[in-house]
Write a sequence for this structure.
């Protein structure tokens, strides 16, 4: 079976991210299933602003994977499911996508079949590359590779074999 290798690159922090603002469901051309999470009515607002107005909603969002932000937002569980479906449908070969940090979390949770609660336990640094490689639904993970280094030179057979 042919292998799949997916490079998930997180962009550097922009001004909105530095301010702690929730993003808008940014598209991911060529990988629509890896679009940013839809934050509904929270998009464009800071966590502090939302928490001041809706502390119970923020608490639920951080502790209940099935809770979706109001206004058509996407729950963590839905993001994980969507991302996992995209991973399962990738054609053999190398793929590259520039994605939000939450999408990297969701991809790792889906690929490694972790519980949804693990989403919040993964810290994803900006301006890094996370690599998933595998065959027939079995994924290996290379986390947080600096963009300056070329993770494509790593041997996929050696990743995660210890």
């Amino acid at each position: 079976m042919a292998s799949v290798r997916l490079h998930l690159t997180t962009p550097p922090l922009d001004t909105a991210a530095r301010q702690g603002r929730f993003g808008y469901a940014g598209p991911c051309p060529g990988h629509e299933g890896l679009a940013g999470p839809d934050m509904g009515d929270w998009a464009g607002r800071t966590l502090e602003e939302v928490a001041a107005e809706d502390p119970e909603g923020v608490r639920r969002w951080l502790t209940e994977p099935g809770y979706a932000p109001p206004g058509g937002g996407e729950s963590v569980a839905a993001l994980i499911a969507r991302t996992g479906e995209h991973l399962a449908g990738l054609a053999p070969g190398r793929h590259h996508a520039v994605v939000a940090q939450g999408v990297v979390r969701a991809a790792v949770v889906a690929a490694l079949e972790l519980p949804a609660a693990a989403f919040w336990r993964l810290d994803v640094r900006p301006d890094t590359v996370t690599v998933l490689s595998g065959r027939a639904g079995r994924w290996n993970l290379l986390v947080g590779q600096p963009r300056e280094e070329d993770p494509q030179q790593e041997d996929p057979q050696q990743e995660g074999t210890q």
Remarks:
- Confidence is low (pLDDT under 50) at residues 153-162.
